[in-house]
Amino acid sequence: MPVREGVYGLLAEFNTPGAMVHATQLAHDAGYRRMECYSPYPVEEAASVLNVHRNRVPLFTLLGGVMGLTTAFLMQTWVSVWAYPLNIAGRPLFSWPAFIIPAYEWTILFAGLSAAFSMMALNGLPQPYHPLFNAPNFRDGATDDKFFLCLEATDPKFDVAETRTFLEQFHAVSVVEVEL
Amino acid sequence: MATKPLTDPRRDPVNDPMIDPVTGEFAVIAPGHNFKSVTQKISNVVLTSHTPIGWFFGLIVAGGILSVMLIAITWLVLKGVGIWGVTIPGAWGFAIINFVWWIGIGHAGTLISAILLLFKQGWRNSINRFAEAMTIFAVCCAGLFPVLHVGRPWLGYWLLPLPNTMNVWPQFRSPLAWDVFAVSTYATISVVFWYMGMIPDFGTLRDKAKHPFAKYMYGLGSLGWRGSTRHWMRYETASLLLAGLSTPLVLSVHTVISFDFAVAALPGWHTTVFPPYFVAGAIYSGFAMVLTLAIPIRKFYHMEDLVTMRHLDNMGKVMLGTGLIVAYGYGLEVFMSWYSASHWEFFMMWNRMFGPLGWGYWLLIMFNLAIPLLTLWWRKWRTNVAWLFTLSIVINIGMWFERFVIVVTSLYRDFLPSSWGTYKATKWDYMLYVGTMGFFTFLFFLFVRFAPMIPMNEIKMMLPQTKIKGVDAEETIEETA
């Protein structure tokens, strides 16, 4: 059945993280893939079920660190050897041990900024609007004390009526349709 | 850390709700809290429409002291650094003392947010946010001093490696240039780490706020956070990475600052013990400042449930540990001045102890070593809130005198008696120093009013309700079937 226009997905609300993880596991077993859990704090078990533990933040952090290290070291070398050479009692211009300290600081600076900004970029933040905010119970609880499972309409297995019946068997507090 | 069970006669280890019956330790969070109560407790401080009258009073007092700083800076900009007490031979005075003191205070915030996170010290979650805020505000105060000390603060950007029409570049072999890199990196990473930690909590505030303006502002701050599991996983990875990066960073910052001294060939400064001794001293004074802030805040906002005796006790232990490293540093300085067999080193130490400013040395020994290290060994003293608060002030005075002694007594009587002099701070020095305390407190008052001072999501992670048992899941399946 084609996806009905105007529906983002079905949102099931739970009172405990255990109930949410349980429902997510069974939804996964039933063949649903396009789904997401929402919780007020990170729930590791939900991430295991969704298989989203691995991400690319560490890679970007490493790249940032390498970039910071080379940028700082090359900049200091260029300044001290070519751009502004200072002959102080004939000491070598390429005094690399002294350059290590600013290079060390910029490694951390670039890596840290890469970690934070790659996290935001991969998460698609800032994103002030999202269809889920249309569901009033989501705004009340998702960042407070409630746990949500959203089966999204883009999933091939999604069918408003069938999926609703499927979600209702988990004794969810509520199952609501989220408008796009 | 395993310690003996409580033997305090005032406390009953069996029935006292603040004591964990399994370990006999103080509880990290008082029992009876759930997700909702944690959200309410912390967000109510920010979202209340009844701002406590004491907050306004405190803000006005802090603002008054802040205006002293603004006057001191205005006069300095108009007249130049000649209004300060710095002169030859005492060319480094209050500016560098206060810079090192403030930066040092900041270090505990990073230690709590980064190093204790890596060591999985769960108790840090309650004090993490405001300790980080303390770091940032302390770095703001610290940064003022070198920028003002350059004489023409509007040209302060010359410190940075920027191309300019004069074709002049920084001297990268100088510890003072290293400082620019270390401190600017430290400030940037601290702000990023702090803000990132607040994103989910701003989301909570956005959802709890009633007033449309508050909703809008916290909505902007939250960047649209919605607690998705994929987001949380990347967020956790980024937090851990930032913690892993901040750890070597915080150790390097005070190390680089100690190089400002240790690289100079001056008796009293030219020692290899400076980097570890500076870092330990920084953490020592920083924990003292965390206590100075935490004790009144938990009392005023009734946060005893979340900032418990466990936190105060543990911070006392950290201060004891770092205080002992500082004591080792003092001991080694004295030993090396004798062991070096250098006439100048020996004289410097004699002059430091018994010269005209010798009282400063004995004051620091008294305030940094004698009083804290004799009392922090006992849990009875570590859990005495009034004493801990007094001690936190005492240690910060002591740590200020440590920097005073290092800077001034090494400078004012150097190799040639004909060039001896003294150092005397002027009223502008004192006004600027006291003024930065007002600046710090002012920022802190704004922070506790408008930002969540305790990380809600991290506290929730420590509640027993988060436990997901495999058995329970199976039971639910049976029920459903």
Shape of chain A: rod-shaped
User: What is the topology, as strand order, of the major beta sheet of chain A?
Assistant: 2-3-1-4
The low-confidence parts of chain B are 471-481
**What number is the mean pLDDT of chain B?**
87
Helix and strand pattern of chain A = EHEHHHHEHE
In quaternary terms, these chains amount to: heterodimer
Radius of gyration of chain B from the CA trace?
A: 24 Å
What level of helicity do the residues of chain A show?
Answer: 40-55%
Q: Give the CATH topology of chain B.
A: Formate dehydrogenase/DMSO reductase fold
Task: Give helix % range of chain B.
Answer: 55-70%
The CATH homologous superfamily name of chain B equals Formate dehydrogenase/DMSO reductase domain
Which residues of chain A sit in consecutive blocks of at least 5 with pLDDT less than 50? none
Supply the helix-strand structural class of chain B: mainly alpha
Provide the CATH architecture of chain B: Up-down Bundle
As for the number of domains of chain A, it is 2
Q: By helix and strand content of chain A, what is the structural category?
A: alpha+beta
Q: Which H/E pattern describes the elements of chain B?
A: HHHHHHHHHHHHHHHH
N- to C-terminal separation of chain B?
46 Å
Number of distinct beta strands of chain A: 4
- How many discrete domains of chain B? 1
